[in-house]
Design a protein that fits this description.
There is one protein chain. With 131 residues, the chain is mainly alpha-helical. The protein has one domain. The chain is built from five helices and no strands.
Length: 131
């Protein structure tokens, strides 16, 4: 017997799958619009040597979490909450760092806040409980 999932769970599951790809597009467009020079990308602060190598790993984790959410797995719900808190935390730390503008970072923070809020609601938790 398959578990039923609400429309919100399906939407957030798809969002988690496509979020890494949209992040790449947002960063690329933002880079072109703001036309930062390459000297901003010289590894001179902690973000460069920690977050850039971890970025592909985090993209894979988002995709796997989205697939788990669509399959209504409890581990995926917990991972979505952890990713939400992690996204809020890391984007607040590097809020004013280039190459991403403040507007884009606030957008990403709002998405992560919605993620945490949605997957911690009791109605959503019930959907993920084992039968």
């Amino acid at each position: 017997m398959d578990k039923k999932r609400s429309v919100g769970v399906a939407v957030f599951g798809c969002l988690l799958i496509f979020f890494p790809f949209s992040q790449e597009v947002i960063v690329s467009v933002n880079f072109l619009v703001n036309s930062y020079s390459l000297k901003l990308f010289i590894p001179h602060h902690i973000k460069t040597w920690i977050s850039y190598p971890l970025f592909p790993v985090s993209q894979i984790v988002y995709i796997v979490t989205g697939i788990g959410i669509l399959r209504v797995k409890e581990w995926a719900r917990l991972l979505a909450v952890i990713l939400g808190f992690g996204g809020i935390f890391t984007n607040l730390i590097f809020l004013t760092q280039p190459p991403i503008s403040l507007f884009v970072k606030l957008y990403i923070i709002i998405i992560h806040i919605l993620l945490v809020y949605f997957f911690t609601r009791s109605k959503v938790k019930v959907q993920f409980k084992q039968p």
